[in-house]
Every structure is written in C-alpha cells, then in structure tokens.
Amino acid sequence: DVHDRLSSVFRDLPEFPPRPSASSMVGQLFSGSAAAAAVTARERAFQRYFDLLCDRSDVMGTQVIQVALAVTPPEPVCFLKVRGWLPSAIGRGLSAIVEVRAEGQVEGSSGITEGYRVIASMVFDSASPTATEDSREHLGPIADFLVPSLASQTQVKVEWLKPGAEVELQVSAANAVGESPPVAIRVPVPT
Length: 191
What we know:
Layout: H1 2-7, H2 22-29, H3 32-54, H4 57-60, H5 63-68, E1 77-87, E2 94-102, E3 115-125, E4 137-148, E5 153-161, E6 166-174, E7 183-188
Antiparallel strand pairs: 1-2, 2-5, 3-4, 3-6, 6-7
Helix pairs in contact: 2-3
C-alpha cells in the first residue's frame, strides 16, 4: 500500500481517507441516492488527500509515489552542446557551459525529467603501438554529479577542465524511477 510505504519514511503525511465499513457499503447498495452521495464524499476525500500529497515536493520526488503514478524513466537527452567557456572558480582550469534539452517533456508524458546526471571524463591516448583502434584510448573520470532540471532546457556548468585536453561529457536524464540511456559528446578544452 502506497500510503503505508510513504508513512514509514514521512511521519507528517495527511490522514488517508478511512475505508467505509462493510455494513455501510451494503446499506448504500440498496439506497441509490445515498450510494451516490457516499461515492461523491469518498472521491472528495481522496482528492483532498492527493492534493495535500502533491503539495509536498519531498513526497512527490520519491520512487514510491512516482511508480504509483505510472511515471517511467525519461527519454534520452535530445540536445547536448557546449555553449561557452569560463575560467574555473577554483584552480587554473576552465568551466564548460553545457546546454541540455530533454526529449519528451510534453503534457501527459510519463517520463518526466527531474534532473540530469553529468559525467565528465578526460580522454587519454594509449601510446602502445600494438593497441587496437578500440583500445587506443581510455577515459579518466573528472566529475560525476546530478543537477536539477528547472525547465525543458537547462544549462550545466562543468568545472575543473584542463586546457588543451579532450573531454567526454556524458549526460542522462533522470527521475526517481530511473535514468535514460546516456548521450555523450567529445570536445577539446580551449587553451
């Protein structure tokens, strides 16, 4: 039961609408107008309960509630581009300003994007003459972080990038249910 699972984490949830007793349900079956009024009252109670849950971003961000609402992992990122470079706030590196857009962010979509997982890696060349094309390079992780998606288009700042290096930026759209497959680009960091 969703309410019971949420209650194990959140102590201050609204009260779940009480279930009618079996005797009251039997009586309502034989009384047409009373049955309609009981159904209407129960619908209103559930709507109040659900409205109060929806006002709680901490509750709505849980996997339990998102699965109950049939939310699915988001579609992959449809646009990923470095829009500019700035000096890093710390150190001598540069920061990439990366524009990210999620696919499928339309009303009624079940794969909403709540944030992006960004993995930045330096690309290193293997100096071995016997290395195959697939093994001539390897990635050295620089950063792995999550940023909130504030709109269908988000700018992400990736810091501490070494001037002159080649960097792979890999981005996945994410929500409480899961992550999309990653989309990656490689860019040279200016010198």
